[in-house]
Amino acid sequence: MSINSDLSSGDVADAPYPDLTPNELEAIARKHGLPLGPWEALPIRGIVNRVYACEDAILRIPRNEPDAIRDTMTESMAVPLAMASGIRTPDLLAFDNDRDLVPVPFGAYARVHGDVILEALPGEAERMTACQKLGEDLGRLHSVVPRVPDPEGILDFPEPDDPARHLADLQRGGYLAAEEAVWLGRWIDHLRPAFEVTLPEVFCHWDVHELNVLVDRAGDPWLIDWGDAGYGDPAEEFGVFPLAGIPAMLEGYLREREVDEGFAGRLLWAQLSHGLRRASRPASSTGYAPGPFTRFIRLWQFCVDAPEMFQPWLPRR
Questions:
Q1: 43-73 confidence digits (pLDDT tens)
Q2: Cα dihedral 132→242→296→197 (10° resolution)
Q3: CATH 3.30.70.3270 fits 7-113, yes or no
Q4: Where are the domains of the chain?
Q5: CATH level 3 topology of 116-313
Q6: 4-48 residue pLDDT tens
């Protein structure tokens, strides 16, 4: 389930987290030839999974709920594709859909010892180098992974979100004055021509936010959590990552892949849509989303000195 998901409208937030006993963890480890432990539940829970870890491996056990299980099934198909592309992502050690030891499918992965990308590195230069490497990996992912058969339809094909819909919601809720709403509406209209091209359809992670990128002790980024992966416009892939890192990411990305002239406009469309959607909501209790206006502040900061490729798409007075 993506960071973009509205937990208030689904059942994932109400489904209990799995709580495995030491005997259950040992049985899983023995069945799949994993280290016998010791295993412990990591303190930070995702929206979908509880994660158990030992020194060299992790188990991602989803809540027993259809959307969470679907994400786990998506990971089972997406991670081998990502691994084959040569990008940095933890190896899938085992996938189990037998439901004999626990009532849900789950994955076992090699453990990457690191921290989330914007907290792991002490200096700005190191963070931007990691963002460049992440961009290179995304460029490789978008270029190398072919379209594959998906008879059960477990990969995602999301449509671009429409910021005008979220703008209307904010107006109805009294969050914006009429003048500001008109100005934002003009910017949305200014971005629409970015879609007047044949949109590329490539394999995407679809949830590249800062908590899904771990940086290891060597300063290399590792992309995790493939539960929303599928195919679509690669510009949307950059829609939720903090904009401070986007120029460095694109520097790396453009070493691997060319983009069309509307790419930057569609990237801003995705960032604006996410910012408008978040603006009427409180900060997430899971820590997976910043406060309601953080996205807006980041967007305005970015526009002040945005790279040249974004200049034609920036808002006008």
A1: 866 789 999 999 999 999 999 999 999 999 9
A2: 60
A3: no
A4: 7-113, 116-313
A5: Aminoglycoside 3'-phosphotransferase; Chain: A, domain 2 (3.90.1200)
A6: 544 333 455 567 888 999 999 999 999 999 999 899 999 866 789
